[in-house]
């Protein structure tokens, strides 16, 4: 074997592998493709109702309100009463405003509040809506028509042993069962004992007569009914009222379930009056309206002087406002020296001495006249420079009359005039 050197080996200026720019470009393209595929797959496989666009794709019913998700909702369900200045409480007031425009010219204002399945927040929604309407001065009654799993009486802290079921079978009178709550403009009728035939009781003639009586006595009549898909109670009751509100929980209700809910209402020839979205995310594209990432709340310092009334339900001032502003600064009795200053003694200044009269000008000699006539320029007389001021106002510096002393003394103008007059008097005497 014979080895021959063809060319000299040359050290490369850049590594052959890895190619960093090429790897970054390929990684970016692959990442974008995988992310797009995952988003399309999630959108295709996700069957839950996420937001407003999903509801509008299933029903033309208007969305009259959106309630943001709150992890503490089970601890304080009555947010309108517990924290009236919170953003979630304000969302219920927005729901109240939109709810008051439902029905148009129809004088009946009786509504059934239901949902597709349990756990979507229908009882919490109807309770806070009723409180918000009562705070606005409306005469409201809320009835627990869920005769299978009633929760309204426990949420409002009322006795629920007797109620709607006892009224429908004629065991008790309405005036003995209705219970006032809060400020007095909100009444509550609990569900009572759970009957063996809830659907038959809700569809009886006694129920029709009760609804007609309530519509004449109250401005708004709200029924908390059972979910539509498991049982038919809400569908039966919806045929006797003026409208139905469907509560939909974001991320919990499936599109197929909501579609079946709307189909069940169409089967009884009922059109939903509105949809209320609950458990909405606080941020993101699925947030209702403008989202809940902002707040327009009052400063706690501005509302610290206001306390809620225990009986009337309206705010009242903690203390009456003062009629006159308080005095500022020390009084004359405490600090008399501040207001009455002692009289200062008068300072007498020496009388000004008139300067001596100037001597008459001497006649100019003849020889000087000739020089002036020939054009000789007279000597210039420079004006005396005024004394330089230093320190405080109206003060000048004069040389001391003591010989062999180079010190300077600070003297006022009045004292300088007095010294000048004394020196002039001495020179005249001499």
TrEMBL record:
Q: What InterPro entries does the annotation carry?
A: Bact_polysacc_biosynth/exp, CobQ/CobB/MinD/ParA_Nub-bd_dom, P-loop_NTPase, Wzc-like_C
Q: What keywords appear on the UniProt entry?
A: ATP-binding, Membrane, Nucleotide-binding, Transmembrane, Transmembrane helix
The record, for NCBIfam families, names: eps_fam
- Looking at the record, the residues that make up the CobQ/CobB/MinD/ParA nucleotide binding domain are 112-278
Region (Disordered) residue ranges read 307-332, 354-430
- Pfam families registered for this protein in UniProt: CbiA
| UniProt biased composition (Low complexity) | 414-430
**Can you tell me where the transmembrane regions are?**
20-41
What protein name applies here? CobQ/CobB/MinD/ParA nucleotide binding domain-containing protein
Q: Which domain of life is it from?
A: Bacteria
List where Basic residues composition bias occurs.
377-396
The UniProt regions of compositional bias labelled Pro residues, in chain numbering, are 317-328
